[in-house]
């Protein structure tokens, strides 16, 4: 017996960067997360070659799922071409040989920071949302150990109270993005800081959503066809961002989540947040044959 | 301008990185060797926080990142985590290590003696400007002691245990393959003892110092005394596949034990911290945190969950710099809520008034 | 001045007890907090528990609130929705039962209130735990409970931290009665308040008891408070019940030497 027999030939990097034991850990915890929708599963989060807080959880999940047959799309704040999205997309292609795309319809695996694409996702697509803070109870209970017990007991009174207090103080619920939602009637999740506009897209969706938090070492999931209900009072309706009647100044699209761009001398213009949907609309206007998928919101309203 | 997916982002990040690397110039073997030879304390600190004992790789990472410590750590940690665990070394006991320095503040003299060893503790901190003026400074030769100190030193704690001064800790027999490994398992609270000590060993020196100092100043309940501080080299004894145990080399380690006043049961509570490399500040501060954690409330900065989470160098530094990333989607969402609330207020000046009016309606 | 004679005479205790603790013992390290204590609380009565600090009376009350479990002993509540030993309930079930059926007012308002939330929110939290999901119903019920506790409604959204001690106790009372509890537990509810404020808070409690017939257990080291509030009294010393009976009887004709000492020291 020799050391050579016991080990594989040395290579600078494993396929998909992560070693087999890291991927096994991720696979196991992803399965657990899918099996108990919305329940945060602790996992051994590894260091990856980007900084913690920059999508390391998302990256680990994507790297584990990735194979050369995948077509991968990376979004940051709705934009495929934002610098961090570009960096992650490059890295994924470099270590896996998978194809990359900007088009939601072509992608089989989508890693996103804080947006769900506007085109409806299908059964064969997986959405990996980067999660900075997986704990919806953090504002009312900073200790992870105690928060874990509270989840076990479905002890969400303090979280509801926070919503009550906001209405009393401000006349409305002040939660912007990261709106807490009850998954499958059991666990409250923070759906990563996607806007309220997007939380409704997760409800009874056809695709699988994985929500890994690399720095906090927790992963939770929303499996296909699972109830995702934002925490709202029966008599105070849930409000998405007031973007239904805003028009994108570049693509002319209307009724989608927008970025507000301040203008010199006051005033604002808007640009569609889902950058590639905007690009497709422009291409279509220029007479190109472009496929635009069905969207969750139609004329600014969700069905 | 057409709204096409120009890959401007990819080009921008490429050039930004080039701009950064330009200032460091060419990196080669000589530079790496120079860093390793000239900066042993820095190498030690980096190896401890990376939890990777590899002086040459630590020097390479320092060269590659231009000395940005957090970037250095991330390079090493990301490399380390992909390496297979080939074997598990035999446990190391303090009295078996090759001890270079070992002191106690609790007693004037201790069995085995106080061994000062290499230290800057009593040096005068005068900046050696003559190096710039006259072109160099060579270390004065060390005069060997008449009687060399024994290379192995007993542990003070074992004397204290004999005297009944220390609480007898029941040793849990664990197969070495079952020792919890915080680099391969999530850290949960209350933490496993192994996870606590491993996390402290790889914690950010600056972070441990800040919180340890808070404990020392009075935010902790225990007034610490250095029971034993030890810098040594430990033999890395591993089992060959054929079954023989052999030495694969030595690693530099530091360890500190901090004691407090007698507790209710008449025993000295003891805090412990050890790490790769020689890093005295870290182990003293770390052992002080360990000493205090048992009496801390769960929400206190002296509590284990607080200090272990917040001294994790890769996580804390990464999260800190992530705030540079665009946050305009979340900001937009918050802005929308703010404007909505303002519109409500314009309708009725007092928010709770509005609520009340709606109730009356 | 309020005296016991102003109120109904103690009800006859021939009914089934509403709450019963039996054979309860509890140790904290080397301290024996409770030694084989049994207690019965009858529907509609006010049971006083008196004793010096360290006698175990507050521990007993915390057990009635199911926030503490004994080493041995049982607790039962004679309600359609409860059966068996309540100490065996899961943390979740105990929390739900507490939210719906048991109210408590602590001496220290920091234990019972979120000091930086609104006062109405403190009351609403309890309703939220019990599952109420209508904002305007929460408001209405919180207002009703605060009103019943004689709390000034103009301050209903002020945080307790900005209120006086007496007002803080009224918020605690409102929180405790918001869901019409089967039993209201009072742990030194007026200790530390000015004498005049103390009388007003006791007055409110007495009125609630009279108007709503709420069963109460009140713990106090103050015999005056017990005499004012309680129908029956249990005297505790060093973790044991030394004497038990109707308030007038026990105070006029104490049997146990310790009770005699207590009564005479006070009078």
TrEMBL record, chain A:
It catalyses: alpha-D-ribose 1-methylphosphonate 5-phosphate + AH2 + S-adenosyl-L-methionine = alpha-D-ribose 1,2-cyclic phosphate 5-phosphate + methane + 5'-deoxyadenosine + L-methionine + A + H(+). It comes from the Bacteria. It holds the Pfam family PhnJ. The keyword Iron applies. Transmembrane segments: none annotated. Keywords: 4Fe-4S, Iron, Iron-sulfur, Lyase, Metal-binding, S-adenosyl-L-methionine. It is an enzyme of class 4 (lyase). InterPro entries: PhnJ. Its EC number is 4.7.1.1. Belongs to the PhnJ family. Catalyzes the breakage of the C-P bond in alpha-D-ribose 1-methylphosphonate 5-phosphate (PRPn) forming alpha-D-ribose. This is Alpha-D-ribose 1-methylphosphonate 5-phosphate C-P lyase.
TrEMBL record, chain B:
Residues 135-154 are annotated as: Disordered. The keyword Lyase applies. Keywords: Lyase. It comes from Mesorhizobium retamae. This is Carbon-phosphorus lyase complex subunit PhnI. The keyword Lyase applies. InterPro entries: PhnI (IPR008773). GO terms for molecular function: lyase activity.
Automatic annotation (TrEMBL), chain C:
It comes from the Bacteria. Keywords: ATP-binding, Nucleotide-binding. Residues 19-263 form the ABC transporter domain. Coiled coil: none annotated. Pfam families: ABC_tran. InterPro entries: AAA+_ATPase, ABC_transporter-like_ATP-bd, ABC_transporter-like_CS, P-loop_NTPase, PhnK. CDD domains: ABC_NikE_OppD_transporters. One of its GO terms (molecular function) is ATP binding. Gene3D superfamilies: P-loop containing nucleotide triphosphate hydrolases. Belongs to the ABC transporter superfamily. PANTHER family: PHOSPHONATES UTILIZATION ATP-BINDING PROTEIN PHNK-RELATED (PTHR42764:SF1). This is ATP-binding cassette domain-containing protein.
